[in-house]
Amino acid sequence: MSVRQREENRGSAGSGRPGPGDRPGPAAPAAPFTEAMARLVSGVAVVSARRAADGGPCGLLVSSVSSYSVSPPSVLLALARGSRTYRAMDATVGTPFGVHLLGSADEALAKVFAGRSEDKFADVPWTWDGDTPRIAGVPVYLRCRAAALFPHGDHTVLVGEVDDCALADGEPLVYYRRRLDWRLA
What we know:
- This protein is α+β, with helices and mostly antiparallel strands.
- The protein is built from four helices and twelve strands; from the N terminus they run H-H-E-E-E-E-E-H-E-H-E-E-E-E-E-E.
- The protein has one domain: Pnp Oxidase, Chain A, CATH 2.30.110.
- Helices cover 16% and strands 42% of the residues.
- Strands 3-2-6-9-10-5-4 form a seven-stranded antiparallel β-sheet. A three-stranded antiparallel β-sheet has the order 1-11-12, with helices on one face. Strands 7-8 form a two-stranded antiparallel ribbon.
- Strand 7 and strand 8 form a beta hairpin.
- Keywords: Oxidoreductase.
- Pfam families: Flavin_Reduct.
- This is Flavin reductase family protein.
- InterPro entries: Flavin_Rdtase-like_dom (IPR002563), NADH-dep_flavin_reductase (IPR050268), Split_barrel_FMN-bd (IPR012349).
């Protein structure tokens, strides 16, 4: 019997769906899972927003961002709920935010937004794009509005509809095995 046949025979009436008595297996241990995900090559982005409390800019580095939909143009990203920036932006449906896809020349910028500085924008060239802090000189900038938020585990999955997109030339900065300085050849 193939794996697929075994899976289809489990659950409700051969539907392939788990039945009421089926329980998911144990969760993967955190350390091996974290190591496995460190081996997934991903781009890095700075997510920026206006702080809810005082209106200043806030931002954080993320490696979990992807295209979600073309119609409407949307991105999907995961934000750690324990981060100061996530709490500062106090995102709800409709909250504007920016996604800045970093280039190979942006390693220092990535380290600033991965850090714990109280004012990450202090030495960074940026301007307001409406209600969204926009960092200058990055290869890709997306101005978004939160369309949906889904808390799961220690993160919130955020779907953002893209209002505007700016593109420039540049090779991407990627994250691999906990390093921000690995570049595609």
